[in-house]
Each structure stands twice: as C-alpha cells, then as structure tokens.
Amino acid sequence: MKFLKIFYDATKVFSASTHVTIHSAFHQLSTIHNELKLSILDSDPIMSAMGRGMKLKYDKYWGNIMNMNELIYFGVILDPCYKMRFLEFEFPDMYNNQPDVGKDLLFKVKEKLFKMFDWYVAAHGQQNRNRPSSSGSSGGAVVGSNVSAEQPTRMARSVAFKSYLKESCSIDQKSELEKYLDEANMDGDEKFDLLLWWKQNSPRFPVLSSMGRDIFATPVSTVASESAFSTGGRVLDTFRSCLNPEMAEALICTQNWLMPSFSKVKEMNVQEEFENSEKIVTGIIL
What we know:
Helix content is 69%, strand content 0%. By secondary structure, the protein is mainly α. The chain folds into 2 domains: 2-127 and 180-223, no CATH class; 230-285. Helix 1 (2-14) runs antiparallel to helix 2, helix 2 (22-40) packs antiparallel against helix 3 (45-63) and helix 2 crosses helix 4 (71-77). It is elongated, with a radius of gyration of 32 Å.
C-alpha cells in the first residue's frame, strides 16, 4: 500500500485541473523513478517482480529522457523554491549509474531554457529595449560668451565618461533569467502561492513572468484519471445510472475477480477439448 500510494499521489497531481500542476510533475516522476529502482532490488520476490513490470511501463512512457518535453523541467525551474538547483541535485541521484546521462540532460535543459527565454525577449521585450534616453540641454545652455575654452572640453569628457559607463554596464549586465537563477531560493511551504509570487515579482522579471505564465498554463495531462484507470464509467453508463453504490461496487469487483478466469478460458482450446471428450464418450458407448 505504501508503494502504490506513490502512484496514487502522482495521479492526483497529473489529473488536477483547478490549479497549476506542471511545476510539481517532475517531483512525482523523480520519486517514482527512484522508488522503482529500489523495488527491483527488494528482497521480497513479489515486490521485485512487480517493480520490474512497472519499470517496463515507466520506461515506455518516460524512459527516453532525451525525448521528454522540457516544459516539465521548466516548470520546476520557474518555481522560486527549487529553480535550477533542484535539477542539479536530483539528476545525479536519478542517474547515479549513468553520470554522463545526468550531465548531458542538465546541459540540454539549460540550453533549451535560455533559447526559449531569448525567443520571449525578442517577442515581448522589444518595448523595453532601445528606448530613447532623455538627453538634457544643459550642454548648450551652460556655454556662454564668458566661459573659458577649457569648460566645453571638460563637459565633453564627462559626457564621454557617462557613455562609457553605460556601455560597460550593458556588457556586464545579466539577463532576467540569469538574475532569477542567481537569487537565493525561496523558503516555500504548503501555503506558498506560486502564481501570486510571479504576479508580485512581474515588475522585476517582465519577460520571464510572461514566459512563466504560458508554461504554468500547460496541464501535465489532458486525460482524466477516471478514464485512464477506472472501469466505473463502463459500469455506470446511461442505462445503469440508478445503481446504488453497493451494487456498483459489487459489479466492478466481480469483473476484476473474474478477469483472470476469462484469460485462462481464452488460452484453452475449447474446441479441441470438446472433440477429445466426444471421442472418449463415443468409444465408451461403442
């Protein structure tokens, strides 16, 4: 029950539709990945066999990490409580027997993240860049007929120095994404509101907040958990909508209990068994 509860919790997270889910998807996947590795090494043969079977299913959908949608990682990175540091901490643990895989994956995630951010800068950041600077008219107003020839030279040097400072600052200035990643992680708890944090910090990260708004709007799964795992919808159809809970439970449980018997019957060659029995009966009568 403790082992299966992990999948129950992950299903609840993946199928939620009233709040953000993509920032917590990788947490569930990493937990499942590590627990499956431990279950395979379990001394209990039942747990070990179940772990191997479930690992095959896991690898079918999530095993090829290089083909995984990077938005699952971006959701964690844009959570100020975890950021990129969580992936740097988790990848070596998940792929402890394949250290190069973890390093390559981390490099790929960083590369795609900055590439996506650059696209948002080009799409949304044009209005914040290349704004005309407000130049004062003091240079022409100060110079008069009684001003010495040295003063304009000093003013020109001062303007040139300010221009030099602007250029050097623009070269050394970090992007919004780099500033966000360099800041310390938030000490979040269960009451931490991710969307509220980004709303309050959107003036500091205007482009990054637009990027996060689109990422957080992406659901982890578009399939309801009942449709994927439950047979109740096939029992309680439009013609059986008046069944009471006890009868519905009896039908679903009976179907589950009889399923192994149905599979055994299908594997048997019923026609061959019937012909053999008929020959025996005929021989006895003769």
